[in-house]
Amino acid sequence: MAVDYKGRIGNLIRDARKHRGLTQTQLADLLSTSQSAINRIEKGHQNLSLEMLARIGEALDSEIVALGAGPTHLRVQGPTTLSGSIEVKTSKNAGVALLCASLLNRGRTTLRRVARIEEVNRLLEVLNSIGVQTRWIGDDDLEIIPPREFDLSRINEEAARRTRSVIMFLGPLLHRAETFDLPYAGGCNLGTRTVEPHMTALRPFGLEVKATDGSYHAQVDRAVGPRRPIVLTERGDTVTENALMAAALHPGETIIRNASSNYMVQDLCFYLQKLGVEIEGIGTTTLRITGLATIDVDVDYAPSEDPIEAMSLLAAAIVTKSSITITRVPIEFLEIELAVLEEMNFHYERSEEYVARNGHTRLVDLHTKPSQLVAPLDKIHPMPFPGLNIDNLPFFAVIAAVADGQTFLHDWVYENRAIYLTELTKLGGHVKLLDPHRVMIEGPTSFSGAELVCPPALRPAVVILLAMLASKGTSVLRSTYVIHRGYEDLAERLSALGANIETFRDI
Ligand SMILES: CC(=O)N[C@H]1[C@@H](OP(=O)(O)OP(=O)(O)OC[C@H]2O[C@@H](n3ccc(=O)[nH]c3=O)[C@H](O)[C@@H]2O)O[C@H](CO)[C@@H](O)[C@@H]1O
Ligand SMILES: C=C(OP(=O)(O)O)C(=O)O
């Protein structure tokens, strides 16, 4: 029987379109064609020229139709019980901040044990395109050597548009060029994420940014410097990092108020200290920075472990009712999460604390025990550190789904993240969206396998994968780039604990 290639390619296009959150009409507009043509293509009723395939790939920002290089999918057989030990990797968010901060240094930066994730790969592509030399040493140490001058005219726009972190080039670059353009920051589809706080924070350093034609046009007035404390309008992580990086190369003192004291900000501060920048107030909301006119040192820094990956692994153990050991857990940034879990009747043991390779962050090993959880009495909601981390909130959806009773989650932060948690219903969960920010979850759930496309948001995508581990039968999770954006070899590492996950591609 002839293989239905047109049908398969149609499915791939449909998946990629949904993954980008586009309707058929929106895709048709991008391709200057009609919605009915897209419908025919997706149904496999249309002959496609190679040129059309290439245009579709471009419009969907996906290599989906490049033979042999299409998206990866996961096939999960459940239910699973996990066993053994797993080590938490270093964080995506410190990793990307440090890559941007390396632009401040004319010397060589060596970062130890950087997570091998797509978000880092995209930023490396951007750095390479402007002349920065980067090289992996061994498995996961990264050497970064800047050029004498950056060539911003050659910036890899495609890579830049796939990550929001590129906005953190503004802080370092404002010291290196008087005018420059950066492509608009992209990243997960979590609803509108403002960049205005970044502009407010960097204006005191003389930066003015105009956003037109898909680019930020930056102009720097060297005569301008902060005359009074910079008060951030939001206690955001990357905005604090941008202000810190601008302050690092501003000779003299800068004070930042309402600063985030979150884990990635702390890692950035420790790195900047190694560069010779003086910083007081690390871990608080007021940072006092004494910057330098130039920074030219060979520096070695080891960022700390990822509290969000640690939370993901805890959730994996909880939903599969497994006994596993999770090592190198940055407990300092998971204390509220664990306190809530304890209230929900989660049993575990924790080791004595030890110090991360950055010389500061407190780590522990956690040993999980199978527990029958109960819903918490109060709603679960995130807060800036030291509150429950916003990126950890989605994991409470799948945890609540296996707990007895009703749990309310309130995601006040993102306009468009809680909505993806309702995908759990396709696996048998009872998740009700009360409004775009609040979900109500009724447990316990008896999950059963299904085929789903990854939601276009990292944490909800992992939440679905974890529910699949607990689901009876076969599940398929399609288009997993979004997971690789933030996790190194997650499927392989869960499989090493006994999960049955197979990675595959179409065609
Ligand atoms: C690379 C990186 O480090 N990314 C993290 C960083 O993104 P990032 O720093 O880019 O976060 P955003 O600036 O997008 O802030 C997230 C959302 O929170 C809102 N907001 C934030 C702070 C505040 O005090 N008030 C407020 O309303 C913002 O308007 C936005 O809607 O922080 C987010 C929120 O912790 C995390 O989800 C991201 O993983
Ligand atoms: C929202 C996240 O990250 P980013 O800022 O990279 O989109 C996340 O890590 O969950």
UniProtKB/TrEMBL annotation:
<dbReference type="InterPro" id="IPR001387">
    <property type="entry name" value="Cro/C1-type_HTH"/>
</dbReference>
<comment type="function">
    <text>Cell wall formation. Adds enolpyruvyl to UDP-N-acetylglucosamine.</text>
</comment>
<keyword id="KW-0961">Cell wall biogenesis/degradation</keyword>
<keyword id="KW-0573">Peptidoglycan synthesis</keyword>
<keyword id="KW-0963">Cytoplasm</keyword>
<dbReference type="Pfam" id="PF01381">
    <property type="entry name" value="HTH_3"/>
</dbReference>
<keyword id="KW-0133">Cell shape</keyword>
<feature type="domain" description="HTH cro/C1-type">
    <location>
        <begin position="13"/>
        <end position="67"/>
    </location>
</feature>
<dbReference type="InterPro" id="IPR001986">
    <property type="entry name" value="Enolpyruvate_Tfrase_dom"/>
</dbReference>
<keyword id="KW-0131">Cell cycle</keyword>
<dbReference type="InterPro" id="IPR036968">
    <property type="entry name" value="Enolpyruvate_Tfrase_sf"/>
</dbReference>
<dbReference type="InterPro" id="IPR013792">
    <property type="entry name" value="RNA3'P_cycl/enolpyr_Trfase_a/b"/>
</dbReference>
<dbReference type="Pfam" id="PF00275">
    <property type="entry name" value="EPSP_synthase"/>
</dbReference>
<dbReference type="InterPro" id="IPR005750">
    <property type="entry name" value="UDP_GlcNAc_COvinyl_MurA"/>
</dbReference>
<keyword id="KW-0132">Cell division</keyword>
<keyword id="KW-0808">Transferase</keyword>
<dbReference type="InterPro" id="IPR050068">
    <property type="entry name" value="MurA_subfamily"/>
</dbReference>
<protein>
    <recommendedName>
        <fullName>UDP-N-acetylglucosamine 1-carboxyvinyltransferase</fullName>
        <ecNumber>2.5.1.7</ecNumber>
    </recommendedName>
</protein>
<comment type="similarity">
    <text>Belongs to the EPSP synthase family. MurA subfamily.</text>
</comment>
<dbReference type="InterPro" id="IPR010982">
    <property type="entry name" value="Lambda_DNA-bd_dom_sf"/>
</dbReference>
<comment type="pathway">
    <text>Cell wall biogenesis; peptidoglycan biosynthesis.</text>
</comment>
